[in-house]
């Protein structure tokens, strides 16, 4: 200890005094929630009619679920800490020669939804890291099996030999070329030259992508020809052999100044229709094995194809945790948050997911560490082979994390082995996906894998520097945004209802606090039930003059007010104190309600149909293509409906029912109705109406292509009418 004390710190940890406030608040609110449930139960017991009995029971159930989500959500706030890293001290305690080697994994799956140029930009941004090039390898996994993507990378390798030295020489911070040229970069001869070079590469790539094939005149040498020859006529996305192309080899390939380039390797694993490929988790496991054979770096960085590096110094921050001797040897991964570029001012679709990606992750930082979010995460390779003290050996010694690669990556035997481990039958009868590597069985492989690693005893750290380490694309249409959340909902519920459910297995393995944090996420879509109930029932009752909540003059009314204000104000404060804006918070709470009757609901239904064996949906990629008109509307903060999505139906039905109920309720009260008894319902309907403004606009006022499709409006109006009719025929007594 004495010897290390003299060294400057790499990392500090301080406890936050907010923890005390959080605990007190949680205790007070818990009492209020219990009182609410008691009140619900009391009403059910005292009800005199069947209708009021079933209504009270329904609300008891809804409040129980909301209370459950609220309670598990408090676990994130039980031990707040601040961590700070000092990357500037790194070279004082260690030398660059001692940096560990690093393998970067970039996944892409479809050249139409994920433009190869954007994948290339991500790769270039990490190839240009301030990190010894001979220790850096970038692996690209192409699940789209596309010659177009390979072509883009052939071009990127050539451009990289200019780009990397350019960044170094000029100390460029934006090392993603597209972001650099978008920024206010200094204009000089040199920057103009590199820009011309970039633009011409971009044009070549985009021409090839538009034409859909790599023609002979695009190929410049024999090695390239051999690579593209693998795309024989029978080669399709679903059925093709493995392609491993070493595009750059460190030590051999040099940039224009003669410095070594990092390794750049294109991998498209073998696919056939009969073997399950397990989507991204499957792709990552292939990369784990291929990279083990080729380079076997002890550190692995995983990135989605759109998540480019926004800071060349990021590895330094990561190393501050890794080299800090005061940190647990059980540190398994360092997670950077998902952050996005191009969000509009109000972030109308709440794609920032501030609560999930920033607030909660920061909360977990004082516990066993944040959950894994699929991208921007530095892993120790060892975590994929069993717990800290229970090593699980892979089938062949070449894949062991301590295996040392002695041959150059282009050696015949090495490449042959790489092809072998990328075979689609390779995993049969092995532990891959269950005990080794990324775990299978859910559409949220990231969440599930991180969870299982933490259950095995690995810990993690959350690193959220002021300058975002990575930036990605967020969906710019409502339909895309809702579909993404729907996929997550299905995936999370798959975990929630599996034998490794956090409520049972997780709580046992990690203890109650961490276990309940994971429970909160696994059951993330559950508010769909209370939200759907609250979106329709009080309103339909209101239209029929039936009072279902306490009167304003009743003391229980204070409880409702306290809970509503308490949770809302609290949430808003959390949001703003973490750096968000009021407007974004408002849109965030709106999206929560919208998701409740769309993504969460459809996701839950989809899980149910999956389990019943009726249908099984795959991994629907989120589109990263920008349509000019859509982008424009998005930038103006206008909601994009446009397509006839089934999810829009319950959404607009709820919007219509609430509007009618609100005005119907007001009219009723003016005609001498029971204001005292109906106030809460009128308030709920009014609150929904205020939130639904963009929907009314899209249904009636707008004429652009992003308006609500007329068919959806008609169906929803009919459904609203049907609900109203059904409700008014329900016997009240
Ligand atoms: O069969 C597949 C499907 C997807 N991907 C890749 O997975 C990544 C994420 O896909 P995307 O459509 O962008 O989904 P998102 O919802 O934006 O991704 C979030 O959610 C996913 C789990 O649902 C995680 O894998 C991601 O890391 C996380 O960012 C992309 O790079 C894809 O290329 C594959 O490699 N193979
Ligand atoms: Mn994405």
Protein described:
- There is one protein chain.
- An 8-stranded mixed β-sheet has the order 5-6-4-3-7-10-9-13, with helices on both faces. A two-stranded antiparallel sheet has the order 1-2.
- It contains 26 helices and 14 strands.
- By secondary structure, it is an alpha/beta fold.
- The protein has helices at residues 2-5, 18-46, 50-74, 90-93, 116-127, 147-170, 177-182, 189-211, 222-228, 279-294, 314-322, 354-364, 412-421, 445-455, 478-496, 502-510, 512-522, 528-543, 556-577, 582-597, 599-611, 628-635, 648-670, 675-691, 693-701, 710-728; strands spanning 11-15, 81-85, 102-108, 136-142, 243-248, 263-268, 299-304, 308-309, 331-335, 377-380, 386-387, 390-391, 459-462, 470-471.
- Helix 5 (116-127) packs parallel to helix 6 (147-170).
- The structure holds uridine-5'-diphosphate-glucose (UPG) and manganese (II) ion.
- Residues 304, 306, 472, 622 line the site of manganese (II) ion.
């Amino acid at each position: 200890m004495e010897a290390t004390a003299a060294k400057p710190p790499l990392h500090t940890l301080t406890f936050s005094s907010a923890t005390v406030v959080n605990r007190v608040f949680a205790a007070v609110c818990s009492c209020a929630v219990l009182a609410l449930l008691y009140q619900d139960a009391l009403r059910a017991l005292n009800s005199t009619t069947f209708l009021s009995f079933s209504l009270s029971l329904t609300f008891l159930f809804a409040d129980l679920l909301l209370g459950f989500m609220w309670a598990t959500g408090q676990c994130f706030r039980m031990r707040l800490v601040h961590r700070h890293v000092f990357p500037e001290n790194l070279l004082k305690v260690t030398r660059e020669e001692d940096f560990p080697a690093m393998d970067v994994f970039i996944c892409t799956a479809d050249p139409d939804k994920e433009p190869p140029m954007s994948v290339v930009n991500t790769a270039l941004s990490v190839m240009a890291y301030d990190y010894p090039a001979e220790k850096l390898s970038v692996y690209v996994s192409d699940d789209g099996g596309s010659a177009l993507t390979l072509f883009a990378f052939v071009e990127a390798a050539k451009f990289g030999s200019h780009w990397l030295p350019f960044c170094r020489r000029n100390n460029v911070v934006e090392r993603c070329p597209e972001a650099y040229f978008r920024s206010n970069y200094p204009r000089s001869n040199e920057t103009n030259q590199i820009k011309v070079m970039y633009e011409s590469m971009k044009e070549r790539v985009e021409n090839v992508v538009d034409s859909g094939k790599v023609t002979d005149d695009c190929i410049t040498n024999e090695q390239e020809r051999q690579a593209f020859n693998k795309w024989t006529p029978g080669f399709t996305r679903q059925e093709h052999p493995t392609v491993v192309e070493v595009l750059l080899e460190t030590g051999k390939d040099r940039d224009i100044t003669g410095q070594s380039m990092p390794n750049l390797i294109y991998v498209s694993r073998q696919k056939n229709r009969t073997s399950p490929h397990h989507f991204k988790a499957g792709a990552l496991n292939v990369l784990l094995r291929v990279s083990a054979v080729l380079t076997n770096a002890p550190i692995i960085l995983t990135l989605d194809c759109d998540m480019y590096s926004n800071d060349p110094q990021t590895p330094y921050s990561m190393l501050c945790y890794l080299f800090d001797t005061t940190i647990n040897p059980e540190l398994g991964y360092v997670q950077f948050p998902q952050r996005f570029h191009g969000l509009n001012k109000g972030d109308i679709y709440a794609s920032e997911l501030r609560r999930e990606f920033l607030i909660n992750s920061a909360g977990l930082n004082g516990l066993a560490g944040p959950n894994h979010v699929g991208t921007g995460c530095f892993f120790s390779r060892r975590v994929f082979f069993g717990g800290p003290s229970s090593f699980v050996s892979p089938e062949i010694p070449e894949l062991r994390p301590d295996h040392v690669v002695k041959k150059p990556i282009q050696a015949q035997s090495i490449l042959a082995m790489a092809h072998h481990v990328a075979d689609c039958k390779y995993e049969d009868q092995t532990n891959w996906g269950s005990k080794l590597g990324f775990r299978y069985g859910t559409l949220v492989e990231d969440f599930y894998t991180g969870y299982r690693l933490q259950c095995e005893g690995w810990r993690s750290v959350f690193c959220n520097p002021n300058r975002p380490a990575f930036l990605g694309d967020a969906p710019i249409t409502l339909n895309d945004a809702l579909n993404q959340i729907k996929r997550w909902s299905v995936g999370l519920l798959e975990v929630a209802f599996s034998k490794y459910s956090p409520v049972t297995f997780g709580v046992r393995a990690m203890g109650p606090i961490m276990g309940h944090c994971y429970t909160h996420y696994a059951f993330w879509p559950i508010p769909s039930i209370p939200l759907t109930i609250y979106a329709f029932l009080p309103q339909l009752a209101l239209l029929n003059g039936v009072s279902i909540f306490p009167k304003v003059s009743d003391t229980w009314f204070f409880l409702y007010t306290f809970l509503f204000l308490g949770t809302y104000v609290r949430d808003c404060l959390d949001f703003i104190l973490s750096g968000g804006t009021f407007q974004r918070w408002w849109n965030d709470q709106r999206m929560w309600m919208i998701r409740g009757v769309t993504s969460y609901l459809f996701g839950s239904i989809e899980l149910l149909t999956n389990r019943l064996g009726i249908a099984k949906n795959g991994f629907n990629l989120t589109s990263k293509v920008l349509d000019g008109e859509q982008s424009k509307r998005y930038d103006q903060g206008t909601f994009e409906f446009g397509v006839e999505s089934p999810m829009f139906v319950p959404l607009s039905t709820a919007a219509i029912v609430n509007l009618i109920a609100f005005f119907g309720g007001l009219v009723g009260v003016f005609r001498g109705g029971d204001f005292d008894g109906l106030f809460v319902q009128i308030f709920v309907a009014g609150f929904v109406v205020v939130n639904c403004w963009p929907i009314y606009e899209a249904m009636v006022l707008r004429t652009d292509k992003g308006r609500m499709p007329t068919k959806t409006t008609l169906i929803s109006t009919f459904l609203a009418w049907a609900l109203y009719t059904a409700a008014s025929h329900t016997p009240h007594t």
